[in-house]
Structures are given as C-alpha cells and as structure tokens.
C-alpha cells in the first residue's frame, strides 16, 4: 500500500518493504541488460585500431563509460523520447552524483538514482506546492539530497508577457486558487525558464560540496 506521493509506509507492507526495496528491484531487473551494453563497449575499445576512438564516439553508452572512468565532474545530458529504453535511463541516472531537472513528470526518474545522490529541481513560478509534494518530499524519503531552486519572475518566460505588478508574476497562489485549469494553462503549459546562471551556480556549488563529502565518507 502506497502512502502519499512516491512513498511507502513500511509498517503496512509485508516484510517492512520500503521505497528503497523498489529501487533494488529495478536494479535487478535492468542489470542483465546493462551488463550486455558494458560487454559491447569493452569489445569496441579492444577492437579499435585508434586509441582515440572511444573519446570521439558519441553514442549514449560510450559517453556513460567515459563518465564512469573520469573522476572529475562531468555533465551528461540525458535526451529521451518515447522509444528510449528505461534501462538506458536507469543506467545513466544510477551512475550520476547529481541530477538537475525542471519540475515535471520526468522528475519521477529520481527513483533511478542511488540514495545519497543529489536531486536539484528547478521550480517554475506557480509550482511550489506541486514541486515539493510530488518530488521534494518523496526524494528526501528516498534518501536523496534534495535542493529546490525556485526561479525569480525574471527567469520565467511569463516575465515578458505580463506587467511586473501582475499577480501571475507576484502572487501565483492567488492564480492557483482559481483552479487547476488556470495553473495548467499559465504555469505548466505556458511557461519556460531561462536561468540566472550566477544565481543557480550557488546550488551547483552546494551539490558539488555535498558530493565530495559523501565520496570522502565512502557513501557514494
């Protein structure tokens, strides 16, 4: 029986199963497929006549292999569509120290991450409650370090559509009080974000420090 969003009340489940046990099930389910990719990648490198081939290869699996071997922080952009295997997404996220994403259904993929990893959720205007309820609180229960980055009006595409004193920018709660249809139309369907990178840099720094700390403790 599930309680709240993406959470399990262990006391109501036989064997005191938790959301972490669900992650272990995913790990077992995808590991065979992942092992097959790893073997193919090793074969590519061994059969290559050029020592730089693996550095030039840009398919998803080889990029991930390079990321694992490189101890320095590296950015991996995870592009997906309806045909992308969940095992591929799982492999990338289960190998990362931190994930950054804009609030939306795809944030559910935090369940593919290792506990003690970092989840940074970019929170558009008008989505505070949903961001915390659906992903913030559940990710903390899952054992992740959660960082919420709430954008300012100037970081929203809505800033160029409405006057600076419009409640859509300054009082999203009053707009959301009109009902879900207003929230969806204005803040979900009608909004894009453009980050103030200097401001966002602070969140990345906190994530980096936390990750280094966890590695030194041998927990990551």
From TrEMBL:
InterPro entries: Glycosyltransferase_61. One of its GO terms (molecular function) is glycosyltransferase activity. This is Glycosyltransferase. The lineage of its organism: Eukaryota, Viridiplantae, Streptophyta, Embryophyta, Tracheophyta.
